[in-house]
Write a structure and sequence with these properties.
Elements lengths: L1 H17 L6 E3 L13 E4 L8 E6 L12 E6 L2
Parallel strand pairs: 1-2
Antiparallel strand pairs: 2-3, 3-4
Length: about 80
């Protein structure tokens, strides 16, 4: 029983520790192609989206030029 409690506690702490690491960063301008890795997500507050929204940029191609292009879309500010 004690080992199950300890495993649950460790899982809870690991989830709490990783939460802020997964949060998106808010930037003033879109990063250069080599600065945003594939799958990385950033929010860009450059004024290109309507009021109440912010641009979300999902990383695309690697340095080698492989993979899909970046995805840009306006999302609601939360």
């Amino acid at each position: 029983m004690r080992s199950l409690t300890m495993i649950g506690f460790c899982a809870l702490m690991l989830g709490a520790w990783q939460g802020p690491a997964n949060a998106a960063r808010i930037l003033k301008s879109e990063p250069e192609p080599d600065e945003l890795r594939y799958g990385m997500r950033v929010l860009v507050d450059d004024g290109s989206c309507p009021t109440g929204q912010i641009k979300e940029v999902l990383g695309g191609r690697d340095v080698d030029g492989k993979g899909p292009q970046r995805i840009r879309r306006c999302v609601s500010r939360r």
